[in-house]
Amino acid sequence: MLNIAIIGGGAIGLLTACLLEKDHHVTLYIRDKQQYKVIEKEGIICLPVKKRYPISVQMISRISANHELIIIAVKAYHLQVLVKQLKQLNVPLLFIQNGMSHLSVIKEALAEHITFIATVEHGARKEGLNGVTHTGIGNVNVAPYGLNAKQKPLIIQRLATHSFPIKVMQDGERLLKEKVMINAVINPITAVYQVRNGAILTDPRLHEEAKNLAAEVARVLALNFNEQWQRIVNIASRTSRNDSSMKVDIDQGRCTEVDGILGYLINLASSPIPKIIDYYQAIKEMERGDQ
Amino acid sequence: MLNIAIIGGGAIGLLTACLLEKDHHVTLYIRDKQQYKVIEKEGIICLPVKKRYPISVQMISRISANHELIIIAVKAYHLQVLVKQLKQLNVPLLFIQNGMSHLSVIKEALAEHITFIATVEHGARKEGLNGVTHTGIGNVNVAPYGLNAKQKPLIIQRLATHSFPIKVMQDGERLLKEKVMINAVINPITAVYQVRNGAILTDPRLHEEAKNLAAEVARVLALNFNEQWQRIVNIASRTSRNDSSMKVDIDQGRCTEVDGILGYLINLASSPIPKIIDYYQAIKEMERGDQ
């Protein structure tokens, strides 16, 4: 049993708090005063089973070093402010953010901390201020990152339980890169051509498009193309009847995460990437409803 | 009379081609084959007066050094590919892009070229493939940028005509910074609070909010706060009954340019910027229709 802090009252923060509460002592830290009051009074409601979890909750300003692990589940752009607080605490840190932009923040500001990176395959949707629907059960992948990357992640093994299984990986940066790889190929193609994930395997033209796009993405991320293409084929096959999150966002007239995925790659690239740019522009036009 | 190339078939590219065509020899270069065919056949239609401009048009792959000036009016993320072609041409370049991300591209890849930066205050909306509505007449501000910044911009003075008045400025980087300054303060506040530009002056609470946000933005951009606040007050007063572009985007359920404005500042900042982050998150939530 660990004494754990979780920072962030979004879908992943709430879900993680519920999943860990059974076997650990969890304190949830949040920014929003209204959300704080509701969770203090009613706890977190986990749907669809409608189970109620009474969780210790605190305002984020009160975070202390009185924990064995701090899980940071805020959006990447909030780290910039949060890092100042975390810097002063000598506690291992586990980061759950989309994309890769948080790596530079960790590398620069928290170089002397014990830091881990996680990707979460659980599906979660926030409902109101204190509800979360667990829409899909998946792995939590955790890898050490930074100067401590060669240490054995004992604390992570202590974190893992039956209700919170963890896959321990070697290389945090690679873990994130491989997630960006999938998101940068399957998401834009399914969104632009309005198809389910499996079409990348069954439609010869989209198969070719996906391969060309994957080749550019692998080059930008300095990953091996054949290995990554095999991973994309596996995932598209396993999720062939699913709609990608970017396709759903476009279908529902919402903004997508294209800036954090393809936009990130455009900034990173040092050689020409015409396919990435074409898909970036196509998604931007679909988002804005341009002709 | 100059022999000018304009690259880009968006609203600004089409409008600039029409405005310059009267006094210069203009060739418009575009990427899209379908648009190329329509413009070659029908020219550009400038609305609301519905005047037809027959313009020389070419596919962008055919761009040559046979011009005295190349005006680049493509989106910032397209520069990455285009720059490879421009690098080989020994022709002065004039860049019209939103935001500031193109500065690093110019600085790194085109250091030996004569380069200029422009901001366009004209309003323009693209209609179909070859139409453009001139929605507002404004200045075109041009400043030298890069190693040639101390040269006298004679070519720019030759570019200016009665139908294309130009304000020549000293410092390209400052020109863009001051535009980002305005966009980073007036746009988010009017979009979040659903008010017209003038409310920043008349509503005491929004006045205070705008001031605090402006202080952070000025700090990130290393601009003088008092000077910039005076500019914001002047512009909000001059446009007091207008809706900002970000407010209009939110009202119409479209994605905004918040990533290129506040997102850019978040990446740039090296000290805490809680207001910028709050407004970034608020706009992101409004875009995605989160609770």
From TrEMBL, chains A, B:
Pfam families given in the database record: ApbA, ApbA_C
Record field: catalytic activity: (R)-pantoate + NADP(+) = 2-dehydropantoate + NADPH + H(+)
Pathway: Cofactor biosynthesis; (R)-pantothenate biosynthesis; (R)-pantoate from 3-methyl-2-oxobutanoate: step 2/2
Ranges where the Ketopantoate reductase N-terminal domain occurs: 4-144
Keywords tagged on the record: NADP, Oxidoreductase, Pantothenate biosynthesis
GO biological process terms held by the UniProt record: pantothenate biosynthetic process
Keyword Oxidoreductase: yes
GO molecular function: 2-dehydropantoate 2-reductase activity; NADP binding
Ketopantoate reductase C-terminal domain ranges (all copies): 178-270
UniProt EC number: 1.1.1.169
InterPro entries for the chain: 6-PGluconate_DH-like_C_sf, 6PGD_dom2, ApbA, Ketopantoate_reductase, KPA_reductase, KPR_N, NAD(P)-bd_dom_sf
Domain of life: Bacteria
Name of the top EC class for this enzyme: oxidoreductase
Any one GO cellular component localisation term in the record: cytoplasm
Task of the protein: Catalyzes the NADPH-dependent reduction of ketopantoate into pantoic acid.
Family statement: Belongs to the ketopantoate reductase family.
Protein name, as recorded: 2-dehydropantoate 2-reductase
Naturally occurring in which organism (per UniProt): Amphibacillus marinus
